[in-house]
Amino acid sequence: MNLQTTIGRRPPIKITSASFWWLRNRPTFSGFVKRELIKGELLGVPLGDDGEPISDASVTVKLLADDYQLLCDTGAFAEYGRTELIDGKVFEVSPQYRRHGIVKMDLYDALRDALRANGSPFRPVIEFSLALSPVSLPEPDILLTSEPVGDGPVPLASVALVVEVASSTLAEDMGTVAGLYAAAGIPEYWVADVEGKVIHQLWAPEGETYAQRREVAFGERIEAVTVAGLTVTSAAL
Q: What pLDDT, in 10s, does the model give residues 179-236?
């Protein structure tokens, strides 16, 4: 998984002064006064329902997905290559190496073949941006969507299953990342653990966790819980 979270190994990308001046009157800062940029972090004093400041203390302001996409379009993060928005912060996507890539491709092939065989309306796609929430726009390794064609990110409501491949980020993928997907209502989530040679299968989202889970060793069959008739043979792994 390439998702860099707030507890990940790399810090979020710092917002520049130029981006801040462009953002200060954008929806990201709606509901805030005393809008500031401190050491690359967006800060503001939140307003209450009466339109008055709640206090004089500044809090972190989360970048909205729409504003993030506009910043990307203007080249604000061009020097970083690929980036993604996670819980209101921008992270650089880390490089992918062969072991991670081969597991991802083998899983994609297996999912594609199985979905075609049972005539499923879902299609697997690789590293498409997912409209997870107003402040999160991740790029999962693989996701199953009924709407692969169109403009913009993949709609959340079209997604049946998300797959992440973990080589060095297993703790994040099973912790913070799983919490983000569960909170968004992703029905089922798989984490392919490259080192442990096992697929962690999670489903039944409840709040910020999945109520049900099991492990399937590489080489065994794995049957999706939330996609009817979807059974994948992971022999290639």
A: 999 999 999 999 999 999 999 999 999 999 999 999 999 999 999 999 989 999 877 6
- The span from the CA of 185 to the CA of 187, in Å, is 6
Distance CA 199, CA 164 (A): 10
Q: Count of CB atoms within 10 A of residue 77's CB?
A: 19
Using a 10 angstrom Cβ sphere, with 0-12 exposed, 13-18 middle and 19 or more buried, the burial of residue 220 is middle
Task: Copy the structure tokens of residue 177.
Answer: 């990342």
Mention every residue, 6+ apart, whose C-beta is less than 8 A from residue 205: 181, 182, 183, 185, 186, 187, 211
Residue 46: half-sphere exposure toward Cβ, Cα within 13 Å? 7
Contact 208, 232 (CB under 8 A): no
Residues 202 and 215: their CA atoms lie apart, in Å, by 9
Strand-pair category, 59-60 with 41-46: antiparallel
Which structure tokens are listed for 183? 């909170």
Query: CA dihedral in degrees (94, 235, 146, 132; nearest 10)?
Result: -30
CA distance 204 to 181: 11
> Which tokens is 160 given?
């049946």
Instruction: Summarize pLDDT for 27-37 with one digit per residue, the tens.
Output: 999 999 999 99
Kindly state the tokens that stand for 156.
């959340």
